[in-house]
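Students often ask what a holo structure prediction actually looks like on paper. The answer is less mysterious than it sounds. You provide the chain, you provide the ligand, and the output is a string of discrete structure tokens encoding the 3D arrangement of the protein together with nicotinamide-adenine-dinucleotide.
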Amino acid sequence: MIIVQNYINGKFESIDSTIEDVNPATGEVIAQIPKSGSLEVENAVVAADSARKSWSDLSLEKRTIWLDKIADVLESKSEEIASLESLDTGKPISLARAVDASRSVANFRFFAEFARDYKSEKFEMDDAINHVILKPVGIAGLITPWNLPLYLLSWKIAPAIVMGNTVVAKPSELTPLTANLLAEVIHEVGLPAGVVNIVHGLGSEAGQSIVEHPKVNLISFTGGTMTGRKVAETASPMFKKLSLELGGKNATIVLDDTNLDDAIPGIARAGFLNQGQVCLCGSRILVSEKIWDEFIDKFVTFVKGMKVGDPSSEDSDLGALVSFAHRDKVESYIHLAQREGGEILCGGKSPKLSSPFDKGAFLEPTIVSNLSHMSRTATEEIFGPVVTLHSFKTEDEAIEMANCTDYGLAGSVWTGDTQRGARIAERLETGMVWVNTWLHRDLRVPFGGIKDSGVGREGGRWSLGFFSEAINICVKES
Ligand code: NAD
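The corresponding structure tokens follow.
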């Protein structure tokens, strides 16, 4: 049993009230975490406030060295990150290694290097020069979800502290283990006390207390759209800087000129990576009617071949969903799909696994056809291993179908003609589009959604801008 503590002002602290953390692949309780509330958040904010001045007085160059130190120690613990992440989330170990562990290290390295290279802007007038400088915002409240726990937490902590802010972070109560590991790493490298504080607990208690706290100047939130709305309702009247990275219902458009043998592994990856629990997953697959039969035949065969099982096994393609409650929610959408007239082409139920995984929150990758593209199943975020298939006649129809939901996070277009793909990509109402690939990330580019998928952009210079106040100093020649 792992005992997770809060990390406040450079110290690990327990509280009496705790929450159980469950391994969703077996149902076993693996950790106890603090059920923090406003008192612990207050202590963390006091610590972050005391550390503010000396941290922001350090040069940016010196702060980047701290990021490098954190990255070095994290990297030496890559295998531990991967196994904790797999245990906590139920995701396959191979995915936890390739994506979670490596990106968490890369986030610290990237923001150290990117901030070092960042050139402040200058605008010359005939008789004056404008110098734009980036100042820290103050105390950053960082709230993260369970699907990519350390990956998303490090994506926020690294730019927040490199720009001179101090941090109060609350990881998801479902997946606290790697945030705890990060606290241990931060402690080990000796980052000044109070620069990063990690408070565990429920969203409605610890999370809400961070958002409400008058001394927290900025909120960076990643999570569901409903929660994001609540966060915005609390933070906006207080004029906090706000970034909301929310849900998605992303379209995958497959044009008639696509080489399906090449594309199908990528389309299946987009649908089912991390059991379909990536905000960017392509869960609505729109296929040209000219290749519909061939697509269904090849796609269903491919997906039926995906192995669901023991997350620690190298050959599992899918592990468990994050919790039993979440599996119930995803299953309820499979039942809804059937009530809406959908035909289940494969999956739709829990796989038969041997002990101890027979007690886990597993679900087979599921393909549903025969639904209207406007049905609830095809327009609401399910966030699980369920994709719906829809056929289209023309490019215009594909674009209209892709743009029909309230979400606007991401999409992908698959084609033999990249110019045609890029032309369609420009007409999609989303923050990000991939052509002939998916989740291919350059950390310098803007990341974020439009419509109900969020507000603001993170990544590269957008993160440096969000985690700072741009101040203009106009100097007139005397
Ligand atoms: P969630 O909204 O339930 O929780 C996210 C975080 O917010 C958790 O730490 C939770 O404890 C906290 N929280 C809950 N209520 C709160 C409140 N009132 N005030 C402050 N914090 C509160 O989301 P989840 O179920 O953990 O994650 C899944 C969702 O996240 C999906 O909708 C997915 O699309 C989205 N997501 C989006 C992105 C993106 O970059 N756009 C990335 C990953 C996940």
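The chain has a mean pLDDT of 98.
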